[in-house]
Amino acid sequence: MTGTLTPELEAIVAEAAAAAPAFAATAPEDRARALVAVADALEAAKADLVAIGMAETGLTEARLSGEVTRTAVQLRLFADTLVDGAYLDARIDPADNDFALGVRPDIRRTHLPLGPVINFSASNFPFAFSVMGGDSAAILAAGCPLIVKAHSGHPKLSDATAEVASRALAAAGMPEGVFHLIHGREAGVAVLKDPRIKAGAFTGSISVGRLLADIAANRPAPIPFYGELGSVNPVFVTADAIAERADDIASGYLTSVSGSAGQLCTKPGFIFVPAGSALPDAIAAAAEAGEIPEHRLLDPRIARSFEERRSEILESPGVRAIVPGGIRFDEDGQGWATPTIVAVSLEDFRVGKEALVDEAFGPLSIVVETPEGTDLAALMPEFYEGNLTGTLHISSAEGSGTSENVEELRALVAAVAAQVGRVLFNGWSTGVAVTPAQQHGGPWPATTNDSSTSVGTSAIKRFVRPVAFQNAPDAFLPDALRDSNPADVPQAIAPAGESKSWGARWR
């Protein structure tokens, strides 16, 4: 034992560590079948799981049902990803006696699984970023034993999901110990500190994410920690876009802010519009026409925090309510909210930015009215250290790249791209497509590592590490590096004899 774990946790970590070599050695096709088996089992149990989720989180049946489907799609996507093998980045430099710097040995490089990983579940995505969500799918696909720390907001759902996944993994023949679920913050921290754990993943608040990231970094042997934390996801709307489709922008914005009671990391927290534009009135009209029903927040703690944050924003000088919204508490302490949209001038926003700029986790967003001639590109570094997304709404003429303001828009796009992980045009940041090219990450505090993503096939790369083999006999090479390439993975080969021509084309 390590001396810091309870007997129960010690048994779990020891089992995960013991399973690591065997799990890393499983054939990609076998791991793929196991992931698909979990996906199929989750969909088969959808009705029961969704019912538990609705009771624990207050999220709707439609939302949770769709999230189960998304979770299954993620698992199947990673099944194909691990068999394809491109993520291994296999590189082969054959021996070269005529190398430009002298004799080159045979060097071959690939990626191997890290070992046991702990994943801290999210509160707001009880399927897609929880027990068998995207991080878990990537960890298992990489060949790493997985320990999930369940979120306290949905413990019964976590247990039920874990039971479904455990049965499917065992039936698929995966080694015993490749998957465990634990409960409690202290237990999660203790496991994160254990030297047998080789990486951590997290989705949640900036404060907790920073605490866990610091623990991972300050271990005697630091480990990578991939946290997805906070984001306000700024939106910029041009005058021409408002003139062209104000009503569509207003309704889309309101839907994006209010969906799932605004408890989404990609919710647009700020929208910058020209002062005096028609958009604020269009937003108010859309809210009145839509009659958005109240939605329960995830738990009483989140509801109280939202109430406090909402009051702080409404009381800030210069802020006026476009859509007043509200929040009420029932006899169980659960909070029920309707969307609040406020507006403020850029001048008052700057004066009150200490109270306004932080994320409001719930159905609230701020319209910032910018005077004519405002350098929008300069607003990104002025207000935002890092975000998951940034959005531009432009007109069809501006989209052609031939409008008079094209250079200003290019500067804005460059400024947004410098501080976010995903740049959107004429859409809304909520609703993250599960697809190979997706990027769900960004500079701090959006994530703890701005070169990674928690959605898309690149997410698997977080849980493998590069290893080079020099002059290794074929029998001792990983399959991905053998000349016969039995795994049939992409191999980047640098042929002997080419080094003396490097750079010649640029002379």
Give the count of helical stretches. Answer: 16
Count of folded domains: 2
Largest β-sheet summary: 7 strands, mixed
CATH homologous superfamily caption of the largest domain: Aldehyde Dehydrogenase, Chain A, domain 1
Oligomer: single chain
CATH structural class of the largest domain? Alpha Beta
**Uncertain spans:** none
Region (Disordered): 487-507
GO molecular function, one term: oxidoreductase activity, acting on the aldehyde or oxo group of donors, NAD or NADP as acceptor
Keywords: Oxidoreductase
Domain Aldehyde dehydrogenase: 8-379
Structural features, described:
The structure is a single chain. With 507 residues, this protein is α/β, with parallel strands linked by helices. It folds into 2 domains: 7-229 and 453-465, Aldehyde Dehydrogenase, Chain A, domain 1; 235-425, Aldehyde Dehydrogenase, Chain A, domain 2 (3-Layer(aba) Sandwich). The chain contains 16 helices and 19 strands. A 7-stranded mixed β-sheet has the order 11-14-15-9-8-16-17, sandwiched between helices. A 5-stranded parallel β-sheet has the order 5-4-3-6-7, sandwiched between helices. A 4-stranded mixed β-sheet has the order 18-2-1-19, with no helix packed on it. Strand 4, helix 6 (155-171) and strand 5 form a beta-alpha-beta unit. Helix 2 (28-44) runs antiparallel to helix 4 (61-84) and helix 3 packs antiparallel against helix 6.
